[in-house]
């Protein structure tokens, strides 16, 4: 097929560049249509371009004009169709005297007249040679017949945008249609959004806050935040006093009433979360402090605050799981074994460390049976004479020497003077040395 | 000696990590050389023998946790003992030690140290003696201490301190820093007052023992002791006692005389 030429040549419609391009597309798609059909469709296409609406509010006017390209042959004429662009071309009535009609007219661009049988372009009463009717910038025919007019010159869409169309401050694309001028830039209406919530601002207006365009709600919130205050999630005004937190949002307390007694709430109100059998935020309710305290929600024995999650019951009290801790090391038991002593709970290590159930020999927590004597404890298999390490049983008689068990055999080997002293000390204080044998 | 060899051979064969050689008449490690090759041993008990020199090679038994040398004739110890990596219990009671080697306090994991019935005093302790932070029981009964160095306060894990039958004329106030102490034996000394800081310790609970008889106590302490130990501890905590103690210390009264009773100690070198 012929390549696209710069000027529309004086040829029948079948060889016009527009027609050729259409044909090219059709062939590419592998569709074969008859010349007549193609022509009709072409005409239909040309006429179905809408004249784009002009918006009076807009600072820049861009009117894409519909082009009425009229080809005429010997027996075909054309009426002036400039004011009826939507009319299908084939409905135009042929006029045999048309060559006379244009006899004394001339092309707007080259000032030459028109030959009989020559194609004429008519737009808004101006007549052109088809080869003169081109973009003022690139001198090419207008693709799809669409052109833009600016200061009396006509441009193809591409050049018009390149030269005059504004760019959007957000997406950087050309703006066709409504242009929003704000914040020292141009925007597509869909691109001019609140910087906090992404709401479109074109119709609802915006407020400039610290060089950001914000919607009214977000502006109120931002202003409150800068003052260290919250904005009520219900009435969207600033909360001057203490806010009430409920289901993750903040409110004026006075928007709510106690779920139990109905009194208007103040900031002391309590949110009751995740009751048994309900997931969080499903059953949340607000109660005034008085009703809340009466509801029988367990109070943690450690922090004195209500327990809304898992409750540990021990030592006759309730605790938050993380507040039930060893009285010595303060680590939470988290379900591990604990030992109670005198109203306090201890972890295994510290219970034995404090209350002496570590074996004197191995210094480990005594697992099985315990030998207790002389203010000490032993694993059964570690209880032995402290002098000769001979194992002793529960029944073995032993002497006490510095509160260590000593078998009779060893004691008898002690120097006589030492035995004498020990005996004397024992006799002077028999009750306290009762462990001695 | 064949008897001893038999015991060692049996222990080697059965791979028993505990070896008992009590009252076998052993006078030197030279008699039991194969002992030093039994690297698996965790306990050696050599009570009631006649050993006078401890071979430094004993420290090669790196798995040893308990070494019992009670009632021998040891006069000197090798420094190498202090480097034994697993030694937890060391019993050197009833020997003839009059000094401890330099660096003796380097034991990494020692928990119980028994030095009862030797000839030690504050001047025979090496500088790092009180650096054994893992120590939970220290037995120094039947020795010749007149004073206890204030560094004893470093033994944060000490639960048992026996100073029975020494020549102590005073106790350092640092004893009040031994927060875990639950057994204190200071009977049979020359003490007349106690530091008020002793009142910081929990020595009156049913898990604690304090023995303090046979001391020339000042009258108020002696009076309280008549009633009971808990009364003494309460008295030590009172403002009255702080005043009595302050006055006693500033008066700088001469120390009470030695007791004659212990001079016949059998561990004493023969004159």
Automatic annotation (TrEMBL), chain A:
<dbReference type="Pfam" id="PF00412">
    <property type="entry name" value="LIM"/>
</dbReference>
<dbReference type="GO" id="GO:0005925">
    <property type="term" value="C:focal adhesion"/>
</dbReference>
<dbReference type="InterPro" id="IPR001781">
    <property type="entry name" value="Znf_LIM"/>
</dbReference>
<dbReference type="GO" id="GO:1900026">
    <property type="term" value="P:positive regulation of substrate adhesion-dependent cell spreading"/>
</dbReference>
<dbReference type="GO" id="GO:0005911">
    <property type="term" value="C:cell-cell junction"/>
</dbReference>
<dbReference type="InterPro" id="IPR017351">
    <property type="entry name" value="PINCH-1-4-like"/>
</dbReference>
<dbReference type="GO" id="GO:2001046">
    <property type="term" value="P:positive regulation of integrin-mediated signaling pathway"/>
</dbReference>
<feature type="domain" description="LIM zinc-binding">
    <location>
        <begin position="168"/>
        <end position="225"/>
    </location>
</feature>
<dbReference type="GO" id="GO:0046872">
    <property type="term" value="F:metal ion binding"/>
</dbReference>
<keyword id="KW-0965">Cell junction</keyword>
<protein>
    <recommendedName>
        <fullName>LIM zinc-binding domain-containing protein</fullName>
    </recommendedName>
</protein>
<keyword id="KW-0862">Zinc</keyword>
<keyword id="KW-0677">Repeat</keyword>
<feature type="domain" description="LIM zinc-binding">
    <location>
        <begin position="298"/>
        <end position="357"/>
    </location>
</feature>
<keyword id="KW-0479">Metal-binding</keyword>
<dbReference type="GO" id="GO:0098609">
    <property type="term" value="P:cell-cell adhesion"/>
</dbReference>
<keyword id="KW-0440">LIM domain</keyword>
<dbReference type="GO" id="GO:0045216">
    <property type="term" value="P:cell-cell junction organization"/>
</dbReference>
<dbReference type="GO" id="GO:0005737">
    <property type="term" value="C:cytoplasm"/>
</dbReference>
<feature type="domain" description="LIM zinc-binding">
    <location>
        <begin position="105"/>
        <end position="166"/>
    </location>
</feature>
<dbReference type="InterPro" id="IPR047944">
    <property type="entry name" value="LIMS1/2-like_LIM1"/>
</dbReference>
UniProtKB/TrEMBL annotation, chain B:
<dbReference type="GO" id="GO:0005737">
    <property type="term" value="C:cytoplasm"/>
</dbReference>
<dbReference type="Pfam" id="PF23598">
    <property type="entry name" value="LRR_14"/>
</dbReference>
<protein>
    <recommendedName>
        <fullName>Ras suppressor protein 1</fullName>
    </recommendedName>
</protein>
<dbReference type="InterPro" id="IPR050216">
    <property type="entry name" value="LRR_domain-containing"/>
</dbReference>
<dbReference type="InterPro" id="IPR032675">
    <property type="entry name" value="LRR_dom_sf"/>
</dbReference>
<comment type="function">
    <text>Potentially plays a role in the Ras signal transduction pathway. Capable of suppressing v-Ras transformation in vitro.</text>
</comment>
<dbReference type="InterPro" id="IPR001611">
    <property type="entry name" value="Leu-rich_rpt"/>
</dbReference>
<keyword id="KW-0677">Repeat</keyword>
<dbReference type="GO" id="GO:0007165">
    <property type="term" value="P:signal transduction"/>
</dbReference>
<feature type="domain" description="Disease resistance R13L4/SHOC-2-like LRR">
    <location>
        <begin position="106"/>
        <end position="202"/>
    </location>
</feature>
<dbReference type="InterPro" id="IPR003591">
    <property type="entry name" value="Leu-rich_rpt_typical-subtyp"/>
</dbReference>
<keyword id="KW-0007">Acetylation</keyword>
<dbReference type="Pfam" id="PF13855">
    <property type="entry name" value="LRR_8"/>
</dbReference>
<dbReference type="InterPro" id="IPR055414">
    <property type="entry name" value="LRR_R13L4/SHOC2-like"/>
</dbReference>
<keyword id="KW-0433">Leucine-rich repeat</keyword>
């Amino acid at each position: 097929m012929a390549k696209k030429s710069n000027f529309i040549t004086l040829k029948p419609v079948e060889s016009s560049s527009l027609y050729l391009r259409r044909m090219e597309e059709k062939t590419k798609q592998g569709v074969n249509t008859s010349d007549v059909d193609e022509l009709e469709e072409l005409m239909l296409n040309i006429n179905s371009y809408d004249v784009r609406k002009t918006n009076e509010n807009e600072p820049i006017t861009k009117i894409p004009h519909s082009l009425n390209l009229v080809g005429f042959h010997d027996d075909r004429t054309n009426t002036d169709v400039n004011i009826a662009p939507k009319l299908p071309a084939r409905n135009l009535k042929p006029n045999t005297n048309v060559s006379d009609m244009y006899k004394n007219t001339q092309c707007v661009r080259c000032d030459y007249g028109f030959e009989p049988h020559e194609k004429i372009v008519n737009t808004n009463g101006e007549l052109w040679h088809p080869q003169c009717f081109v973009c003022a910038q690139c001198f090419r025919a207008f693709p799809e017949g669409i052109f833009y007019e600016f200061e009396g010159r006509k441009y193809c869409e591409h050049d018009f945008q390149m030269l005059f169309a504004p760019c959007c401050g957000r997406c950087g694309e050309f703006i066709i249609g409504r242009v929003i001028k704000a914040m020292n830039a141009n925007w597509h209406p869909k691109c001019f959004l609140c910087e906090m919530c992404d709401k479109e601002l074109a119709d609802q207006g915006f407020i400039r806050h610290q060089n950001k365009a914000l919607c009214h709600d977000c502006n109120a919130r931002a202003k409150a935040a800068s003052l260290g205050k919250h904005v009520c999630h219900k009435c969207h005004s600033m909360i001057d006093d203490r806010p009430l937190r409920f289901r993750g949002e903040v409110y004026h307390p006075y928007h709510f009433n106690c779920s139990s007694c109905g009194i208007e709430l103040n900031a002391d109100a309590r949110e009751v979360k995740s009751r048994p059998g309900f997931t969080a935020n499903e059953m949340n309710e607000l109660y005034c402090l008085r009703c809340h305290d009466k509801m029988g929600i367990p109070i943690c024995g450690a922090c004195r605050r209500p327990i809304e999650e898992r409750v540990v019951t021990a030592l006759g009290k309730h605790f938050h799981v993380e507040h039930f801790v060893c009285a010595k090391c303060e680590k939470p038991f988290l379900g591990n074994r604990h030992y109670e002593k005198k109203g306090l709970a201890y972890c295994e290590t510290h219970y034995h460390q404090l209350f002496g159930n570590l074996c004197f020999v191995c210094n480990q927590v005594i697992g099985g049976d315990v030998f207790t004597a002389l203010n000490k404890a032993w694993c059964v298999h570690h209880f032995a004479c402290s002098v000769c390490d001979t194992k002793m049983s529960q029944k073995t008689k032993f002497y006490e020497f510095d509160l260590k068990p000593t078998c009779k055999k060893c004691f008898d080997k002690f120097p006589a003077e030492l035995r004498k002293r020990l005996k004397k000390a024992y006799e002077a204080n028999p009750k306290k040395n009762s462990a001695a044998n | 000696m064949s008897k001893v060899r038999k015991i060692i051979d049996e222990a080697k064969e059965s791979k028993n990590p505990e070896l008992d050689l009590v009252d076998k008449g052993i006078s030197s490690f030279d008699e039991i050389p194969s002992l030093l090759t039994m690297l698996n041993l965790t306990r050696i008990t050599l009570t009631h023998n006649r050993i006078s020199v401890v071979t430094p090679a004993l420290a090669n038994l790196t798995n040893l946790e308990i070494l019992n040398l009670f009632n021998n004739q040891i006069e000197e110890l090798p420094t190498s003992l202090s480097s034994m990596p697993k030694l937890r219990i060391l019993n050197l009671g009833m020997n003839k030690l009059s000094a401890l080697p330099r660096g003796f306090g380097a034991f990494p994991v020692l928990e119980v140290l028994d030095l009862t019935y030797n000839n030690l005093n504050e001047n025979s302790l090496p500088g790092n003696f009180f650096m054994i932070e893992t120590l939970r029981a220290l037995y120094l009964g039947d020795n010749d201490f007149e004073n206890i160095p204030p560094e004893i306060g470093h033994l944060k894990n000490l639960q048992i301190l026996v100073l029975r039958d020494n020549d102590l004329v005073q106790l350092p106030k640092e004893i009040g820093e031994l927060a875990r102490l639950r057994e204190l034996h200071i009977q049979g000394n020359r003490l007349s007052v106690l530091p008020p800081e002793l009142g910081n310790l929990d020595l009156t609970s049913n898990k604690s023992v304090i023995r303090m008889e046979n001391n020339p106590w000042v009258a108020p302490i002696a009076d309280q002791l008549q009633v009971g130990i808990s009364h003494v501890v309460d008295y030590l905590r009172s403002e009255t006692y702080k005043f009595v103690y302050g006055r006693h210390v500033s008066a700088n009264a001469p120390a009470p005389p030695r007791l004659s009773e212990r001079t016949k100690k059998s561990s004493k070198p023969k004159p």
